[in-house]
Amino acid sequence: MALRRRHILGLVVEEHSVLVAEVALGGRRTALVRAAELPLAVSARASDAEAQEAGRALRSLLRAEGFRAREAVIAVPASWLLAARKSFPPAGAATFGSMARIEAERSFATGIADLIVDCTANSTTEQARRALLAALPRRAVGMLRATALAAGLRVRAITSTALALAGAPGLAGARMLLVLTPRRAEVVTRSGDRVTDVRHIGLPPTAPEPIAGEPGAGWLRAVGGLLARVAALSPTPESEGGDEVVVWDSTGLGAGVIAAIGESAGLQVRRSPGLAEMGIAGRSDHLAAPGPAVAAVVAVVGARRGGLPVNFLRPSLEIRRHSRRWPRIAWAAATCLAVLGAVLSLSAQWRADRQEVAQLQERLRQMQPEIRVAEAMVDQTRLARRWTARSPRLLNVLRDLTLLFPEQGQIWATSVVVQDDLRVLISGKADREQPVLVLLERIQGRPEFANAQLLYLRQAGTERRELAFALACNYMQGETP
């Protein structure tokens, strides 16, 4: 039975290191064979020479640590990704792929030809309409494949660390997943079994240390604020399921800090289940190490067919042609016979065509300045069209919100976020509590707004006595006749 066990590596790219875990899969038992944190920096913008050098260094480190698996699943930070949360009408698999590719071209400023785009859904229904479009630069994918090839590894999948952890067992009923590393925090929003959003922020280089029983205020405020913003912008728990946040901590935080994060965000949190609870056996020191545990889960989830929400090595939006074997062989044989019969007559034509192609390529090179000017004009026209449309929905929202604010300057907005579904999040400051309550009452009293609620009202922390607040509501009259 041991000869039939399959070994696979999980490689998690961090800021200045690579977390590695080797997992043995076979039958009903999954075992963590070995795990380590390798001191190797991998950059998304590395050149080909740097990728080759990193691959050779990775190969030496793997040999020194005793890793022998040659198949790998690679996970990168969310900061490498371009992500867009979208809502689609109900559609089947064939129609949804075309809609998703069109949305990707509209959502990402980088040219779609320079990106590899994947989606967390392959179809939609009336109950499940939201999905996440995620993109990774082709250069970054090529760099990771070149590094793995130089290290003697065969890449099975390339994904995001947080999105891979969202597919781990033990997250049933969780609305969000918070992934904490020494340098960043990433939040994944789930709708049932589908990932619908991913956000990330950078953190101070050191984890918070308890001071008089309390975690670091700045670190805690950053993590709690990220959770509160994502929760406010995500669908309500009544329509999407549970309101629980699972915290996947790779920094070794205590239970008090985890509880303080939930209190800061106003949400119910719990620590993620351990590897033993997920059915992964192994040495106790490997199972207890928080960093390599992430790599182990990435390897297990990536080894399952369809286990990863996104796979930039084989994206679901890629057009694939499926055909039977024997018709393909017959067509190939017929094509070869046709080519052999026509090769002499096409030789002269091929020379003429090659000369014509060279002339056209030269002409295209000369036309590059005009092409760039035309592309810039098209982009400017597309941008201006949004502001000159007959129904400027965003201007209506801003106008109605402006009319609700008082003119005395006792309260002001610092940030207004309007989503595609006209969900509005207002952040601001006030010199005292009464103007905030008056503004909330005005919003609740207007028919243009619905589901208005106060997210938080607290001291701003400046030398002046100012209060910071946040309101959320839905705009019900998005278009004008």
Q: How would you sum up this structure, described in words?
A:
The protein is of the alpha/beta class and about 475 residues long. The protein is about 40% helix and about 25% strand. It is built from 13 helices and 18 strands. It has helices at about 50-65, 95-105, 140-150, 160-165, 215-235, 235-240, 255-265, 285-290, 290-305, 325-365, 370-385, 395-405, 435-445; strands at about 5-15, 20-25, 30-40, 70-75, 80-85, 115-120, 130-135, 155-160, 175-180, 185-190, 195-200, 245-250, 270, 280, 410-420, 425-430, 450-460, 465-475. The strands form 4 sheets. The protein has a 6-stranded mixed beta sheet with strand order 8-4-1-2-3-14. The chain has a 5-stranded mixed beta sheet with strand order 11-10-9-12-13. β10 and β11 (about 195-200) form a beta hairpin. α1 crosses α3. The protein is globular and about 90 Å long. The termini are far apart.
CATH topology of the largest domain: Nucleotidyltransferase, domain 5
Strand segment tally: 18
Radius of gyration over C-alpha positions, nearest whole angstrom? 27 Å
Q: Structural class of the secondary structure composition? A: alpha/beta
Strand order of the largest sheet: 8-4-1-2-3-14
Helix content: 25-40%
CATH class of the largest domain: Alpha Beta
The parts where pLDDT drops under 50 for at least 5 residues are 207-214, 237-241, 319-323
Distance between the termini: 71 Å
Number of domains: 3
- CATH 2nd-level architecture of the largest domain: 2-Layer Sandwich
Please state roughly what percent of the residues sit in beta strands, choosing from under 5%, 5-15%, 15-25%, 25-35%, 35-45% or over 45%.
25-35%
Please describe the biggest sheet, giving its number of strands, its sense, and whether it closes into a barrel.
6 strands, mixed
The helix tally amounts to: 13
How would the global form be characterised? globular
Q: What does the average pLDDT come to? A: 81
